[in-house]
Amino acid sequence: MKTFIFSIISILMLLFSCSENKFSDKKYYEANTNIEMHLTSEDTISVISIVNQFMDFYVEGKYTDAVALLYSQRTPKAEPQLLDNDELKSIISMLKSNPIKSYTLSCITFNSADNNEVKCRIITKNDIPMNFTFKPVRYLGGWRLCLK
């Protein structure tokens, strides 16, 4: 008789443990996939410093030195890479054809690690105003200067 009662209790426990509990408050949480970029004043200073260094080389006619600071981001979210030889020649040629005498940073916008913008107002040696736009990309804790 004890075996019979033990068997019935065991079966009942098994049935209740496998049944769905309709009264439980099961909550499912999605993992937070939004990664926020936290900027500091050092980030702003770094970006301004790189842009000013590029523009100072440009004003001084040191086109090779200026272009050596540039990177290319071939697709969105891709890692920035140094320019290849054809890109270097093309940008140096463009810079030489538009020598400048002065510049000012007109707008800096930070959105995400790879979606930022720095606009420069340029005055050419022929007193023609132009705009130049950079795309700074934050990669591995440092800033890489890309052209937009």
Task: Please provide a written account of the structure.
- The model is unreliable at 22-35 (pLDDT under 50).
- The chain contains 4 helices and 6 strands, in the order αααββαββββ.
- Helix content is 37%, strand content 30%.
- The longest helix has 20 residues, at 41-60.
- A hairpin with an 8-residue loop joins β1 and β2 (81-82).
- It is of the alpha+beta class and 148 residues long.
- Strands 2-1-6-5-4-3 form a 6-stranded mixed β-sheet, with helices on one face.
The total count of strands amounts to 6
Largest sheet: 6 strands, mixed
What's the mean pLDDT score? 81
Uncertain stretches: 22-35
- Give helix and strand order, one letter per element, not per position: HHHEEHEEEE
Q: Gap between N and C termini, in Å? A: 85 Å
Task: Give the fraction of residues assigned to helices.
Answer: 25-40%
β-strand amount = 25-35%
**Strand order, largest beta sheet:** 2-1-6-5-4-3
Question: Helical element count?
Answer: 4
Shape from CA axes?
globular
Q: By helix and strand content, what is the structural category?
A: alpha+beta
Radius of gyration: 30 Å
